[in-house]
TrEMBL record:
<dbReference type="Pfam" id="PF11716">
    <property type="entry name" value="MDMPI_N"/>
</dbReference>
<protein>
    <recommendedName>
        <fullName>Mycothiol-dependent maleylpyruvate isomerase metal-binding domain-containing protein</fullName>
    </recommendedName>
</protein>
<dbReference type="InterPro" id="IPR034660">
    <property type="entry name" value="DinB/YfiT-like"/>
</dbReference>
<dbReference type="InterPro" id="IPR017519">
    <property type="entry name" value="CHP03085"/>
</dbReference>
<feature type="domain" description="Mycothiol-dependent maleylpyruvate isomerase metal-binding">
    <location>
        <begin position="3"/>
        <end position="124"/>
    </location>
</feature>
<dbReference type="InterPro" id="IPR017517">
    <property type="entry name" value="Maleyloyr_isom"/>
</dbReference>
<dbReference type="InterPro" id="IPR024344">
    <property type="entry name" value="MDMPI_metal-binding"/>
</dbReference>
Length: 209
């Protein structure tokens, strides 16, 4: 079993438990919407560009709506549980591409529920998530209005944002830094240090891929 499959299974178990109308951290999306997004992302390549490109998002939204109309929620979650498209044929691609996707969306559901607490993750998973953060910090933080210095508890530093001007120090585990850099700043258990105005601007910035 890989980290990607573990997170996929845990996410689907949670989706089954909370039902189709539970909130998520994805603005405007219920768990039903999130399940449709995951199916479209893996199984409808024609609609994938609209996930990242705003001008094409209308087609993606329409495909997601059709997916929900065609599949009852439990059936849709069952489809998510099985890696689709090329990821279902090549396990190494599933691990390379979907570990972050499944982890973040698992947390999107967990952290939208009352009383959530951070998980005690396996050291190997937290280390892998940090590797992805440190490799992609410049991209994930490209829209930050201030410089950012990421400090991983246990070792590791990565930089992002503008190279000049004020900087904010952000400290946490690899998994919490990932959530922060993916635009979930208000739901990431990290410590921020720096000029209060710079910290406030970073907290509200549109971070992520």
């Amino acid at each position: 079993m890989t980290h990607a499959r573990d997170e996929r299974n845990a996410l689907c178990d949670l989706l089954d438990r909370v039902g189709p109308d539970a909130p998520t951290l994805c603005t405007g999306w219920t768990t039903y919407d999130l399940a449709a997004h995951l199916v479209v992302r893996e199984r409808r390549p024609d609609a994938m560009p609209g996930i990242a490109v705003k001008a094409l998002s209308g087609h993606t939204a329409s495909v997601m709506a059709a997916m929900k109309a065609r599949h009852p929620y439990p059936e849709l979650v069952g489809i998510v549980r099985r890696p689709g498209g090329v990821y279902g044929l090549a396990g190494f691609l599933d691990e390379a591409v979907n570990t972050i996707e499944m982890f973040v969306h698992h947390e999107d559901v967990r952290r939208a529920q009352p009383g959530w607490e951070p998980r005690d993750l396996p050291a190997g998973l937290d280390r892998l998530l940090w590797q992805r953060v440190s490799a992609g910090a410049r991209i994930m933080l490209r829209r930050s209005p201030v410089g950012v210095v990421l400090h991983r508890l246990g070792g590791g530093v990565a930089l992002g944002g503008p190279r000049k001007g004020p900087r904010v120090e952000v400290t946490g585990t690899g998994s919490e830094l990932l959530m922060f850099c993916f635009g979930r700043q208000e739901h990431a258990r990290v410590e921020l240090a720096g000029d209060p105005e710079a910290v406030a601007r970073l907290r509200s910035a549109p971070l992520g891929i």
